[in-house]
Design a protein that fits this description.
heterodimer, A: alpha/beta, Rossmann fold, 2 domains, eight-stranded mixed beta sheet, 20 helices, globular, B: alpha+beta, MetI-like fold, four-stranded antiparallel beta sheet, two-stranded antiparallel ribbon
Chain lengths: 690, 492
């Protein structure tokens, strides 16, 4: 078959450090017309640089030093810049990760699409407007004639990404490069956008180069897959081959490091070490230092391409002709039935934290005198309990108030109403100084490891801060009763760092010298420094790669077993929840719509929102019968929540009563409740008035 | 004693400032993790060249800070020494010829005649209108038209030679020190500097030093017999005025900044951090202050102070101490009115920082507000403070010029860039134009501000842990500029 895009031996250098970094090192691939080709890899392995090399939009420090990139036989690297501009948008289009940053905030959507259209088509004004409208309708923007004249801030995240796709489609490209198109979006919106991309591809017969780190997205979208590691492709396979028999040890270990329900009672397999520095010259396999099956040969010679089957190639010495022992590691499909987590009797452990009817409203000020004209009801009557040593997962889309709950439990945000009782002690209304005495018992870990450590402080100062502020003398309450001197402090910090898996001498360094995963470990060590009993983890792994995520999850789990910590785990990642949580609470627009034990909620979700949320998660298992429950539209604004059940505008089962009254709880078991009119209502004391 | 030392108010503040800086240096030297980023300042080529020039200015400023009253020849009836009412500085002594060789009026740089014709009475009693000979400039020449150019060339050459000699001695001394420190022999160290093997860019420092010493050599050879930068309306040497202005500029630049900083830092960070009514109050204060034209505010304050000084003449022993007090007050007034810009900048940055997660984490530990402000926010806004103060430095020197024009600037007896520019301003319109005064003031100010900017830039780059790769990137671009045949270039 004719190939659309051919890349041969592409080498891209980045001149950032003392030695040039080989961001892309001898990459060769072919994309056929109309197919979806996925480039899979962790951050820093050169995926985005490949995409930017194809578009010839490398940053100033980047330089293509060798190779060919051909689209329909035209070598893009030979074209002058003026010709290249005709290729961009017309033959190859690109959509980026951050829809918020890819649109110009001062131009309307129509003006921005018009700009792309003008470049390639010479249409009169009327036809142009009609074409813009058509494009927006194509990507599923409702009420396109009106909305096309709106500004990006009036669009939600998913809508912006749709508008970006419309813009990319304006020139009717043959190849669409999608660089992590859904990473910044919620799962339900991600499902919508992925579905849209599939439809458009079938209709326009366009090829998609999908760049992602998410195995689930790959499994849903791709026909062929290339796994990228440290600047080169290590495995090339069709979707089925890849997901059934991943050949390269790196791919196998990636699968093994995914969290999931089946692995609850075991530690996740982690890939040791880090991606090697790309500034060096490799003499052997790039993965050798992290590989569990490394041989002597791997260090000495660079592996060539070996064929597993016709369409499945791998760059690994294990597959050279003399050792054809194709032993696919037993994968999750075979481990399905193993589930030994017994439901824990809820009465044994004492209740650590009790949140009752918590409300956090942010006033909206308007006008000259800053009159309060309304409230953003970020958290609107939430009740939770966390027992000692257990994990409660709080699940929901972004903007539903998860993080606000976490911060208001810590009293970082003053709640408007409700009560937060920690060990029978009411936290709300406590003075700052009174609060300080019990602050050491609950701590928080943040999402972004890059902004959670002060770049101007050394690790030792970061770790000491909490100890000094709270006068925590000893990490071990049963340890020696020595006076807190500088020496003992340093020893404590060494122990802390060892506990989170870092060598002790890192304490003299600054945060920018560490990778994301290491920073997250430091953030955990900082929280542990004051001996907390409850850790609020605010999406601690969502900014990390899969293999690093596995390390952090393992760490959290071992901390829980060893120190008996309780976690409030705030996340949108269902797989992590399945792996880590004992109980789940599902949030929608400031309220908890369903809660229960992990098995109850995951196996038999009751609320339509939970059902839709769970079905939207891209699955790796190749069961094609899985039915995605599509959700219309986006999360409504918490400033003006819909009347009645908040979910009714998007609910497939909405009934007239849902538009009138907020449902009260329906109980399914001692632990499992949901707020939905589909189930028999019970008279409960907590009623929401509007 | 042949002199009686005088410590003026600004002198005392400068000594105090230098003391604090020295203490800080001593503190940093004993703390390895603080020393490392400062060492990186020493690795920046532009930063170290700028520092060399800056040091030259600082030395002149410091020489001009050591004040005393020389003793007069006669004694009082009781046999006590009588000291002159004129306060001199060490710099004045060093450049005595410049200070004392005063002409009648304007003369162009290096000329031997006045710039304006005047009636000259000849020996035979006739009167003609001609360009009169200068009293000092080129006075040693018999026939200026013929000999002047040769004389200047000869003196220039001699000055260059002396400059080169001094530079060679300095270089040799430096190399010997380096050799001893690194335990190499002389030649090894020299080639090391030449090949740029070390981390500190000695080659750049030496080149800057070479240019400086050649310039100083030339100027000092010429200045004894000519007015290198011409003379002003009352015949004072422009070079002398420029050198004297450096101290005033440095004092206004640093003291004003030091007075302004506490206001800007404290109020800006408080407004951004606490928000609420604290923010409102601080915002109202600086908006009000901003909405009053600052020249009016300063004029009012300066005039009040002037009245005070004039009604209490007994408080001041000398003219210099009066002028100095006026300068100090000017600094204070400028400082109090100029903190608003930086304050607003810091408020915005603090509002951004307070939402960051490491601040939230500190809250979660119950760290006190002041500790958060001093440990977390202050170090993270320091880069803004550094840039803003260096930018303000040039602005303040200019503000002084504007104020001198209105008549509320420094004391008229004090020489500053402002008074120089102000005096030269009107002469720009005259034909032929008197350009040298303005050019000299501009040239000195430009060099001072540019070197301060470059040095601050180097400091900022070195102190910010995140911008460390910048220098290497620049190196790469230089390299790539030389390389002409990259594959892409070939391809296109």
């Amino acid at each position: 078959m004719k190939t659309l895009l051919t890349i041969e031996h592409l080498e891209t250098l980045l001149h950032t450090g003392s030695a040039p970094v080989r961001a892309v090192d001898g990459l060769t691939l072919k994309i056929l017309p109309g197919e979806t080709f996925a480039l899979l890899g962790e951050s820093g392995c050169g995926k985005s640089m490949t995409a930017l090399s194809i578009m010839r939009l490398l940053p100033d420090v980047g330089e293509i030093v060798a190779g060919q990139i051909r689209i329909n036989g035209i070598d893009l690297l030979q074209l002058p810049e003026t010709e290249m501009r005709k290729i961009r948008g017309k033959r190859i289009s690109m959509i980026f990760q951050e829809p918020m940053l890819s649109l110009n905030p001062v131009l309307t959507i129509a003006e921005q699409i018009e700009e792309a259209l003008k470049q390639h088509l010479n249409l009169p004004h009327q036809a142009m407007q009609a074409r813009i409208q058509e494009l927006l309708q194509q990507v599923g923007i409702p009420d396109a004639p009106r909305r096309m004249h709106e500004y990006p801030f009036q669009f939600s995240g998913g809508m912006k990404q749709r508008a970006m796709i419309a813009m990319a489609l304006a020139g009717e490209p043959e190849l669409l490069i999608a660089d992590e198109p859904t990473t910044a979006l919620d799962v339900t919106i991600q499902a919508q956008v992925l579905d849209l991309m599939r439809q458009l591809q079938q209709r326009n017969h366009m090829a998609i180069l999908l760049i992602t780190h998410d195995l689930g997205v790959v499994s849903e979208m791709a026909q062929r897959i290339a796994v990228m590691y440290a600047g080169e492709i290590v495995e090339l396979a069709t979707r089925d081959d890849f997901f059934n028999h991943p050949a390269h040890p790196y791919s196998q270990q990636l699968f093994a490091s995914l969290p999931g329900k089946q692995k609850r009672d075991q530690a996740l397999t982690v890939i040791q070490g880090n991606v090697p520095s790309l500034a060096q010259q490799f003499t052997g396999c790039r993965f050798v230092d992290r590989c569990t099956q490394a041989m002597e040969l791997c260090r000495q010679s660079i592996p060539q391409w070996y064929s597993v089957t016709d369409e499945h190639q791998v760059r690994c010495h294990l597959f050279s002709k003399d050792s054809v022992n194709d032993t696919p590691v037993a994968k999750n499909s075979t481990r399905h039935a193993v589930n030994t987590v017994q439901p824990v009797p809820a009465t044994t452990a004492p209740i650590l934290l009790q949140v009752t009817d918590l409300k956090v409203y942010f006033p909206i000020h308007e006008g000259l005198f800053k009159r309060v004209v309304g409230h953003v009801k970020a958290v609107d009557g939430v009740s939770l309990t966390i027992t000692a040593g257990k994990t409660l997962a709080l699940v929901g889309e972004s903007g539903c108030g998860k993080t606000t709950i976490g911060k208001s439990i810590l009293q970082l945000i003053k709640p408007t109403a409700g009560s937060v009782r920690f060990k029978e002690r009411e936290l709300i209304a406590l003075e700052r100084s009174q609060l300080r005495q019990i602050r050491s018992q609950f701590q928080i870990i943040f999402q972004d490891p890059y902004s959670s450590l002060n770049p101007r402080m050394r690790i030792i100062e970061i770790l000491q801060e909490g100890m000094n502020a709270l006068n925590v003398d000893r990490i071990h309450p049963v340890g020696s009763s020595s006076l807190p001197s500088t020496d003992s402090r340093e020893k404590e910090i060494d122990t802390l760092l060892q506990r989170v898996g870092l060598p002790a001498d890192v304490k003299w360094r600054f945060p920018h010298e560490f990778s994301g995963g290491q920073r997250q470990r430091i953030a955990i060590a900082r929280a542990l420094a004051v001996n907390p009993e409850l850790l609020i983890c605010d999406e601690p792994t969502s900014a990390l790669d899969v293999s690093v995520q596995a390390q952090i999850l393992n760490l959290l789990k071992s901390l829980q077993t060893n120190l008996g910590l309780a976690f409030l785990f705030i996340t949108h990642n269902i797989a992590v929840v399945e792996y880590l949580a004992d109980e789940v609470a599902v949030m929608y627009l400031g309220r908890i719509v369903e809660r229960g034990n992990i098995n109850e909620v995951m196996d038999s979700p009751k609320h339509p929102y939970t059902q839709a949320l769970l079905s939207s998660v891209p699955q790796i298992k190749s069961n094609l019968d899985q039915h995605i429950i599509p959700l219309k539209g986006d999360l409504p604004s918490p400033a003006a929540p819909p009347r009645g059940c908040h979910f009714h505008p998007r609910c497939p089962y909405a009934m007239p009563i849902c538009r009138e009254v907020y449902p009260s709880a329906s109980t399914f078991s001692a632990t499992h409740t949901a707020h939905c009119f589909l189930y028999p209502q019970e008279q409960s004391s907590e009623s929401y008035e509007h | 004693m042949p002199f009686s030392p005088i410590i003026l108010w600004t002198d005392a503040l400068i000594y105090l400032f230098i003391g604090v800086v020295l203490c800080f240096i001593g503190y940093v030297r004993h703390h390895e993790h603080l020393l490392t980023p400062w060492k990186r300042v020493g690795h920046s080529v532009s930063g170290m060249s700028a520092l060399t020039v800056l040091l030259f200015f600082l030395i002149i400023g410091l020489l001009d800070t050591i004040h005393f009253r020389p003793a007069l020849d006669h004694k009082t009836s009781q046999g006590e020494k009588v000291y002159s009412v004129e306060v001199l500085s060490l710099l004045d002594i060093l450049v005595t010829p410049l200070r004392t060789q005063v002409e009648k009026t304007y003369s162009a740089p290096l000329s031997s005649h006045l710039y304006a014709k005047e009636t000259i009475e000849l020996a035979d009693g006739r009167q003609i209108r001609d360009f009169a000979r200068l009293e000092f400039g080129g006075a040693h020449l018999q026939n200026p038209e013929m000999e002047r150019m040769n004389d200047i060339a000869w003196r220039t050459a001699k000055g260059l030679a002396y400059g080169l000699l001094v530079w060679s001695l300095l270089t040799a001394g430096l190399v010997i020190i380096l050799a001893r420190r690194n335990q190499q022999n002389f030649m090894q160290s020299l080639t090391g500097i030449w090949r740029r093997t070390g981390e500190i860019p000695w080659h750049a420092i030496l080149i800057t030093l070479l240019i400086l010493s050649l310039l100083i050599g030339c100027v000092s050879m010429l200045a004894t017999h000519y007015h290198v930068l011409g003379t002003d309306k009352v015949g004072q040497d422009i070079l002398y005025q420029s050198l004297k202005s450096i101290r005033v500029a440095l004092v206004i630049g640093t003291l004003t900044t030091l007075i302004m900083l506490p206001f800007a830092l404290l109020l800006g960070m408080m407004a951004g951090y606490f928000r609420g009514w604290v923010d409102d109050v601080i915002q109202y204060i600086y908006t009000t202050l901003n909405s009053i034209p600052s020249v009016l505010l300063i004029a009012a304050a300066v005039l009040m102070m002037q009245v005070y000084i004039e009604t209490h003449p007994d408080l001041f022993e000398t003219i210099a101490s009066r002028a100095d007090l006026r300068l100090l007050f000017l600094c204070i007034i400028l400082g109090i009115t100029s903190w608003t810009g930086l304050c607003r900048l810091l408020r915005g940055e603090t509002m951004k920082l307070r939402e960051l997660e490491y601040i939230q984490a500190a809250h979660a530990f119950g760290v006190s507000h002041w500790r958060i402000i001093s440990r977390h926010i202050l170090p993270n806004v320091m880069h803004l403070v550094l840039i803003a103060t260096v930018m303000d430095f040039s602005g303040l020197v200019l503000a002084e010029a504007v104020l001198s024009y209105v008549g509320v600037g420094v004391d008229p007896s004090m020489i500053s860039f402002g008074t120089m520019i102000n005096a030269a301003r009107l002469e720009m319109a005259r034909e032929p134009m008197v350009w040298w005064a303005l050019l000299a003031a501009f040239g000195f100010m430009f060099t001072l501000v540019l070197s301060a900017n470059l040095f601050a830039d180097a400091v900022q780059n070195a102190l910010d842990p995140r911008t460390r790769t910048l220098k290497q990137r620049n190196k790469f671009f230089q390299r790539r500029g030389n390389k002409t045949d990259t594959p892409l270039n070939k391809a296109s």
